[in-house]
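SAMPLE LOG
Freezer: B-3
Tube label: C17
Construct: single chain, 240 aa
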Amino acid sequence: MFDELNALLDDTNRSSNGSILITSFDFDSNFLLEHFLSYALKNSLNCVYISLLTPFSHLKHVQGKMGNVLKTADMSTSLPLMFIPLFSSISDQYFNGKSTFTIDDLCTMIKQQIIASPEIILIEDLQILRHLLKYSDEQILLMQRKLRDIFPNAQFITQISISDDENDDEKFSSFLINMLKRIHQKHLFVRSLSTGATKDISGQLTYTGPSQSRLWTNIIIRQCLFRLTDRSLNLITSAI
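STRUCTURE (predicted):
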């Protein structure tokens, strides 16, 4: 769990309304999902990890480095994690003769595999739904809405990588990305250095979220460089 990232997000008063969007361009942002999963496990929060690519064995390996022991992908009283291998489940259904999946089918499949009321729901890279399952932007947004209707008390943390064709004058904006920003309260954007990574600098991170000031409501933007290792994330806020 990365303490400096917690301080950046100022999540000391975590609530179900504090949904977080993770976007990335030319950098793997899975380390952020691993951080939030570790946060949930260490604080005994019922957590659902909806995997579209990552196998449970990989989560187990990475979480072990972060001090969390994962023995099974099923929800248990000792470790409140529910791992849903969504893409594998969809693949199995295809082989059993079901050739199409509506958003209702997808949400039902997720709901049926959750056996406890989740407090945090982590959703892996939505680009996989777009490019491999050919879901439209509207369908992906509909899935987000339906899942929030099914689990109204859960904090949603959603990941999506940004493709080259979504680069609009370096603002990385598209209809889907912009709409996802609107329905999430906080946004973390990760990208590599334009000059390439160095020994001391891994990439750039930008945080956008609501101000915690009691005097006014405003949006704050914080930019920093970061250094990522297997067990730590160091933010260099004075570099930008």
